[in-house]
Specification:
Blueprint lengths: L14 E3 L5 E3 L3 H22 L3 H21 L16 H17 L7 E2 L4 H24 L6 H24 L5 E2 L6
Antiparallel strand pairs: 1-2, 3-4
Amino acid sequence: MKKSSLYTRGGDKGTTSLVGGQRVSKGDIRLESYGTIDELNSFLGLLISEIDDPETTDVLQFVQHRLFSIGSYLATDTTTTDLRPSSHISINDIERLEQKIDEIDSRLPKMKGFILPGGCRSASLAHVCRTICRRAERQICRLSEITEVDDAVLTFINRLSDLLFVIARNECLLKNKDEIIWNNACY
């Protein structure tokens, strides 16, 4: 079998193909949406490399797979192309995130104020992932203003940012590092 070329030259003029072959601008909000999902997935890989807890690693790897599904979903214009079965997010996917959020949160101390990103490297990376996730959510919301977006996609992304927040807090706890509480006093 011949190895395929990494470059096709098809995007040299600023367009790319969606699933199904439709050509769109690389500046299209659909591409911004799934490109940010790809960015988030890459940073999740970095976060996973810094986490020692196998249960957290397991749920984050599950998330990475589901983000590929969301990327595929967002790369499909459903008005012209049928979704692939692997491009769907289910209620079970969302429930898995919710269960993990509840499980981690039950071990965490009560918050004493707003938490600044930091404390340890893995917590900082979780906060970076959380903010990228929020950006992806904003972009998907903008996309939903011009085309239908499955509610499950937005719900999954919203829950994911919550999961990343509790993972950041948990990483400080597991690594015996103090969370950084915002000092809101005027200087």
